[in-house]
Amino acid sequence: MNQAFLPLAGVRVLDFSHVIAGPLATFYLAQMGADVVKIEKPAGGDVLRRSERGPSAFLSLNGGKRCVALDFRTEEGRAEVLAMAREADVFVDNFRPGSLERHGLGYEAIREVNPRIVYCSISGFGRTGPWADRPAYDHVVQAMTGMAMMGGVEGDDPIKTGFPVVDAATGMLGALAIVSALHQRNRDGRSILLDVSMAAASMQLMYSYAVEALTKGVSPRRVGNQGYSGSPAADFFQARDGWIALGANTPAQFSRLLEVLDLGELATDPALFDGAAEPGEQVSFLRAKDPMLLKSRLRERIAGWDAARLEQRLAQAGVPASKVRSVAEFAADAVASGALEPVVIKDGEDSAVVPGLGFRAWA
């Protein structure tokens, strides 16, 4: 990324957030040049400082920020916060709604001393409604919003996504909301209250399925590792030395897959297709008369391939595919290939390597 890309230089942020979602939002702001002042309780600070993952857990979400120990529950601490808020552009918290209001630091109190403030409140279920007071963690929100019933196949137990995906999405939406609000504030000069919730972020992640639920009142079927298209050639298959994910969604991609696998006869097999699976125009996703039979034939052939070799051949043929990697394997491969440009965050002797902002910018 061009090091001159600091669009938020000169923006001051007061960060009252902790753990993941809020700190990630303000971390993005800091990476884009904002001066972020993180307010922590004097006794112990953010709980991530004591994470079993070591200093990198805290640093990866809070590097580049200035940390201040301050007890806002005291009159002296509250006065200090209000003094800092007068000079700030953004105020962020992820306490349960009403918590800061009880200490005289809610939106109205901050707006009174700074009528241009962008105040971002991050919570589990939003600032209003019967769920507003509920505490929340990532896996709890996954359960409540139906996300835990999307993985696996019908009849399986609920399956939590293997990382705090809702926290991550909430942080991203928080940063997007703040940047958008700053643009609006700079046009009209007025303060803005942002209400960012983990529940809403979860629905954004499940966007197309959320649309189906809201429009038709239906939930998606649990289809395991099958691709979103429903193509029987878009799934995970076991190779000789590991697993590979195929994305032959269209007849054209399927035709190229069969060519690589030397299975051209499947395209005209009457047990699978009424007519030849012609490459043709991409007018629809691939469908087969007997999807399970087609998958079985593909599994038999793929079982004899090395996953990395098949990935390479399919990439050359223009078929989306990837060997199933661990996170560490992908990180090493992505850095070596230039697909990922990590950023090193340092704090004294501690350091963390983070994946950056997720996009690149050149001036």
Automatic annotation (TrEMBL):
Species in which this protein is naturally found: Pigmentiphaga kullae
Pfam families, per database record: CoA_transf_3
Keywords tagged on the record: Transferase
Keyword Transferase on entry: yes
Keyword Nucleotide-binding appears in the UniProt entry: no
Superkingdom classification of source: Bacteria
One Gene Ontology molecular-function label: CoA-transferase activity
Protein name, as recorded: Crotonobetainyl-CoA:carnitine CoA-transferase CaiB-like acyl-CoA transferase
